[in-house]
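Let us work through a complete example step by step.
Step 1: write down the sequence.
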Amino acid sequence: MPYSASQQLDDDRWRSLIALRAEQPTLALETLRNRRRRPLLRDGRLFIVAADHTARGALGVPGEPFAMADRRRLLGAMLTALAHPEVDGVLVSADIAEDLAALDVLDDRLVFGTMNRGGIIGAQWELDDRMTAYSGASLAANGLDGGKVLLRIADDDHGTAPTLEACARAVDECASHGLPIMVEPLPYHHDPATGAAKLLNDEDALLRAVAIGSGLGSTSTSTWLKVPAGANPERMLSCTTLPALILGGTPGPDPEATYASWERAMEVPNVRGLVVGRALLFPADGDVAGAIDRAARIVRPR
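Step 2: predict the structure and record it as tokens.
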């Protein structure tokens, strides 16, 4: 049976959050720093819910171009996710981390902070993805459990080179603070018709991107990979021994096919779990609790 989760933000709780942000602006950060902590791995698996999209201007899901721009709705979905006992933590930007801390839902949860959000979706410089969110030092100082970088690799875009360099520095910074970092390597190209940056749906290109992401920095001791399930996850991850987490991506038209792809990927030895956001927080049927529970059963089959 699905878990019980009636966690929507009522008017009083929402208004209290708004008032706290104006009248006691440092309290949320203090709560984040002082929350009850937990180890990274308890049973060798991780289920992380992602909500770092808005910090680079990614606001929509299919059919709703501004769904994530509704902060109250987004936080309500996150509260529903965090009510599930098998959700290990969140991947968020600083504003959302502090909102959740202010709502007092992060005790015994992992908090990963997103680092490079400068590649604004749709911008001409989108693939020159600067570090505009957390740094390795601020992750450590603010009591977070790890970081994450997005590494989009496009042979036809000069912005890839500075992004590679910036992500390599982030890997070294997190390692120096003893913090894990998720590296999300994805092959991209520019659509010949529109010029827009697009994910390159090519198995060889994905394998190459994973190999590049695995080798970033002067040590890989803190590196975790965050990768799509892909058509052939065994081959994609054959180039590395690093632990990997499967990302969810944009919600697709067939949720059952998406769940099946995650289940296949979980069979690969170095896959340790899921990092999923929009597909679970904004499912097509609106049943956030059901989507979270379904994903939890993929990470930890019952």
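Step 3: interpret the result. The first strand starts at residue 46 and ends at 51.
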